[in-house]
């Protein structure tokens, strides 16, 4: 018998997605939230909600389950999902943990132990070494990994012995911060590999099946971006062999529930090696659901309730092709640094063949406290090429105004010739990124649209205050100096945009008209384009085709650059992202060289080293370790010795 009430020990899009299945099954959903997350979407969509101090507070989570009367806890992914102590705590409290036994989490959560366990079961593994003695490793290139980690956090590629000490220091620091355990391992790095994983399911009756593979090779900094099922690289025979190996890996630790066995695959030979097992639901599980027709969350719940799997391996069929893209709060033009802000306007696609798993809501705040992933857009079609085309249209219909996202980059990546051809490897994104990052300069028609919005008649305006350029004879031109991310753009407009106006584009007067509103229609020279439009004080946001632009009115006499956006030419060193100062490596009065690390800023579990812009002396250092900082906040000032 299924549970009547389940606590979701998570937040964001995965909590919303779990609640969706609970609602369909008639199960009461209980959300948890921190004080800053009280109005989040997952709280709004649950039947009940309880406040907890932190999402990583295992005792508070177990206490919330008891207080709410929940019979089970679903951990989602991240946070406590792979925490064996939390699984034991739930058991002690008499609440079912919707996941594998604590022993299986322990065995697979420690990468060192996991490799030894599956190797003994006959599953091929990547050659490597474990603590202690990593400093003596000499087989390069090599990949450092946190033994207790996952999701690519703390992984560092090392190509020479000279790089090893600093890489180990950084990886240990990240591992302790992210997982509470600084133990590392090192493995031989496979050049140009494919990352292919197998979804497994196991019940308490001894049944273990796999649901085919997912291609997860499109990664940046070891973090998956676009995933698909099935893999364009894996034929039926290879799928059966890899699936059998994944099943044996699960059996070797007495696994129960949904899990994923990850393999590194040689793109030339097809040889595959076990990397790790994720003892939880994966972010990319929707692509498997769409090609199998199964609800993995429902199956997790049924297995946790003691039911046997309702099908065997011979019953698993893959139908069509599914592709998922992860929408992140990050800025590709700034080296993919995390962003943030309030969601001022939101549009998410609703069309056949498209699924959106999202934690976004208008008015919600995206900060640096949590992972930067905002939502997932997933497309299904009978074949791969159509699935990619469907995904592109769905991304074009997605707009998140108020927060800079990676949507234009995702569209460019999905259309890359190598991606379309299925010729993937884990280094492709890094190699192709320079050509995929969108130009920060707004297109001429977008600049014109922004100027027309600023020029439009304010509601209730005095006729004498309307900037229509009226005078005896021909109307006068009004110049709007619009400040965007790349600088200031003067745009000339005359007339009333709601009725009849002209805008100067490339020296030619182009007839223009707008229909104001959140769904802005702009007609230029007889051609109409539509934008999602929102004003936030003096800032205007426009969104179209998955891209977004921000504009503010730049008044004569204002500085030439945005406040806070000055370059480092004056010696002012600013924070590249909203986050927390993790390490201060310099001291006030210290002589430094150009490129010398001054500080490390951390946001969303990602570190960014801030360096000296030129040789000089650190004349100001107004921050300390542990201090939160906004984007473009002054971190230090380096004064040249001549000055």
TrEMBL record:
The Biotin carboxylation domain covers 2-434
Q: Which UniProt keywords apply?
A: ATP-binding, Biotin, Ligase, Nucleotide-binding
Start and end residues of each ATP-grasp domain: 115-305
Q: Where is the Lipoyl-binding domain?
A: 553-639
Record SUPFAM superfamilies? Glutathione synthetase ATP-binding domain-like, PreATP-grasp domain, Rudiment single hybrid motif, Single hybrid motif
InterPro entries found in the cross-reference section: ATP-grasp, BC-like_N, Biotin_BS, Biotin_carboxylase_complex, Biotin_carboxylation_dom, Biotin_COase_C, Biotin_lipoyl, CPAse_ATP-bd
The enzyme's E.C. designation: 6.3.4.14
Q: Specify the superkingdom.
A: Bacteria
List required co-factors.
Answer: biotin
Q: State the Gene3D superfamilies in the record.
A: 2.40.50.100, 3.30.700.40, ATP-grasp fold, B domain
> What name appears for this protein in its UniProt entry?
biotin carboxylase
Source organism per entry reads Nonomuraea monospora
């Amino acid at each position: 018998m299924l549970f009547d009430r389940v606590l979701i020990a998570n937040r964001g899009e995965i909590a919303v997605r779990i609640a969706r299945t609970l609602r369909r099954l008639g199960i009461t959903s209980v959300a948890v939230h921190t004080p800053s997350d009280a109005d989040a979407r997952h709280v709004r969509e649950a039947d009940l909600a309880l406040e907890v101090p932190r999402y990583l507070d295992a005792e508070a989570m177990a206490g919330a389950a008891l207080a709410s009367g929940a019979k089970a806890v679903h951990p989602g992914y991240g946070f406590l999902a792979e925490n064996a102590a939390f699984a034991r705590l739930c058991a002690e409290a008499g609440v079912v943990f919707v996941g594998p036994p604590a022993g299986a989490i322990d065995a697979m959560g420690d990468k060192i132990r996991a490799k030894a366990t599956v190797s003994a079961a006959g599953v091929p593994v990547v050659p490597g070494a474990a603590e202690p003695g990593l400093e003596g490793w000499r087989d390069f290139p090599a990949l450092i990994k946190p033994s207790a980690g996952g999701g690519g956090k703390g992984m560092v590629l090392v190509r020479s012995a000279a790089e090893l000490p600093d890489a180990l220091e950084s990886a240990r620091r990240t591992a302790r911060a992210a997982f509470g355990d600084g133990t590392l391992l090192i493995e031989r790095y496979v050049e140009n590999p494919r990352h292919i994983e197998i979804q497994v399911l196991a019940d308490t009756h001894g049944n273990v099946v796999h649901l085919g593979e997912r291609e997860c090779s499109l990664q940046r900094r070891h973090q998956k971006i676009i995933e698909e099922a099935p893999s364009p690289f894996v034929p039926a025979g290879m799928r059966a062999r890899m699936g059998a190996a994944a099943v044996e890996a699960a059996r070797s630790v007495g696994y129960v529930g949904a899990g994923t066995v990850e393999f590194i695959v040689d793109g030339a030979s097809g040889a595959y090696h076990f990397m790790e097992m994720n003892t939880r639901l994966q972010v990319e599980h929707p692509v498997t659901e769409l090609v199998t027709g199964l609800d993995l969350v429902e199956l997790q719940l049924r297995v946790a309730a003691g039911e046997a799997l309702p099908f065997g391996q011979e019953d698993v069929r893959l139908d069509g092709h599914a592709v998922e893209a992860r929408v992140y709060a990050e800025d590709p033009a700034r080296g993919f640094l995390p962003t943030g802000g309030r969601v001022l306007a939101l549009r998410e696609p609703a069309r056949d063949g498209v699924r959106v798993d999202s934690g976004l809501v208008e008015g919600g705040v995206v900060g640096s406290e949590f992972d930067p992933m905002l939502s997932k857009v997933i497309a299904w079609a009978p074949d791969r090429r159509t699935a990619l085309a469907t995904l592109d249209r769905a991304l074009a219909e997605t707009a998140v105004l108020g927060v800079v996202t990676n949507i234009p980059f995702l569209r460019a990546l999905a259309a890359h010739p190598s991606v379309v051809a299925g010729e993937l490897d884990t280094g492709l994104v890094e190699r192709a990124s320079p050509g995929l990052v969108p130009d920060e300069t707004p297109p001429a028609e977008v600049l014109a649209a922004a100027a027309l919005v600023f020029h439009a008649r304010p509601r209730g305006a005095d006729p004498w205050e309307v900037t229509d350029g009226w005078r005896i004879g021909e109307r006068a031109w009004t110049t709007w100096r619009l400040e965007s991310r790349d600088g200031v753009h003067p745009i000339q407009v005359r007339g009333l945009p709601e009725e009849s106006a002209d805008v100067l584009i490339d020296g030619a007067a182009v007839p223009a008209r707008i229909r104001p509103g959140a769904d802005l229609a702009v007609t230029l020279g007889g051609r109409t384009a539509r934008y999602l439009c929102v004003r936030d004080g003096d800032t205007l946001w426009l969104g179209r085709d998955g891209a977004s632009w921000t504009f503010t009115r730049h008044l004569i006499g204002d500085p030439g650059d945005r406040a806070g956006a000055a370059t480092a030419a004056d010696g002012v060193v600013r924070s590249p992202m909203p986050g927390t100062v993790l390490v201060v490596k310099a001291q006030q009065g210290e002589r430094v060289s150009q490129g010398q690390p001054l500080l490390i800023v951390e946001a969303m579990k990602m570190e960014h080293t801030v360096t000296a812009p030129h040789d000089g002396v650190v004349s100001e250092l107004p921050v300390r370790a542990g201090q939160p900082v906004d984007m473009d906040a002054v971190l230090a000032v380096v004064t040249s010795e001549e000055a």
